[in-house]
């Protein structure tokens, strides 16, 4: 077993030898954020992956994020240090076969019901609404992106919808992000019925409780939260939008309605301010699978490389490029 200092030293050395860059999503463990060359939200990470000059991208995040990097940078080696770090919400929409059903029991003693049958695919949805453009949240697989017209992130969903010619759009996979988009555009939004179990778990009562404990703290919500939670928010944005809001706002304390990993960065960038997670269990287990040992192993073994089949990649890239052009 090595101590952290030895691991970090070896990571830095190997990074140089491999000409590698380490990217970390805002939800990663503090130890990963601290060694990353770049930390960001999904959109920022896609952009960085697209323009980086490094030969190797070590993607500390979940599978769909590394896939996006591989789609945008086919000539680079994209490595996901923990291959089982997936996103349950991304797996809720498929092109063929059944989607994965996520049950958020036993955390909230509540079952989330799906509106569509288990084997309902994106192709079935497109057949139901012929000619209606599909806006795919970046939290989708490459195969799903390849069947979509344009991608979006939590920060630009309304802008993306407004950029389309049609009055009606299909928005996948998050029902809550679709509801948020519908509030911010005049267009009709047809939604898929997926959800992020970390954000969907929050209820209005959680917000009321946190507000009674911290009455001076604005509540910042992620658009993946339920509409009734969004109604109680003082600010709604992607993780990077939350970082900006916390920096610019005069308040000294904030209630954070997103995955707890963001609090590491919020505290680091605003040492004089206080940040309270809305709920203690706002943790994405997949985002927490990567440790610094995983990064070291990834650099030593160059595993696991994320590759996307070329015909899928080309089509998925069109959807991502359309978004990046906006
Ligand atoms: P961003 O708001 O950072 O895009 O990410 C949300 C998310 O849940 C990523 O998995
Ligand atoms: Fe997926 Fe939610 Fe985890 Fe993000 S926080 S990776 S959307 S499950």
| Main sheet summary | 4 strands, parallel
Overall average pLDDT: 92
Strand order of the largest sheet: 2-1-3-4
Estimated helix fraction: 40-55%
Strand content: 5-15%
What is Rg? 19 Å
Q: Detail the poorly predicted runs.
A: 103-111
Helix-strand pattern: HEHEHEHEHEHEHEHEHHEHEHEHEHH
Question: CA-to-CA gap between the ends?
Answer: 48 Å
SSE class: alpha/beta
**Can you tell me the overall shape?**
globular
What's the β-strand tally? Answer: 12
Ligands bound, unique: 1,3-dihydroxyacetonephosphate, iron/sulfur cluster
Helix count from the secondary structure assignment: 15
Map the helices and strands.
Layout: H1 4-18, E1 20-25, H2 30-35, E2 38-40, H3 42-51, E3 56-60, H4 63-72, E4 77-79, H5 122-128, E5 134-137, H6 142-146, E6 150-152, H7 157-162, E7 168-172, H8 175-183, E8 188-191, H9 197-200, H10 204-213, E9 219-221, H11 227-230, E10 235-236, H12 239-248, E11 253-257, H13 261-269, E12 274-277, H14 292-301, H15 310-325
Residues 26, 41-42, 87, 139, 153-154, 196, 224, 238-239 line the site of 1,3-dihydroxyacetonephosphate.
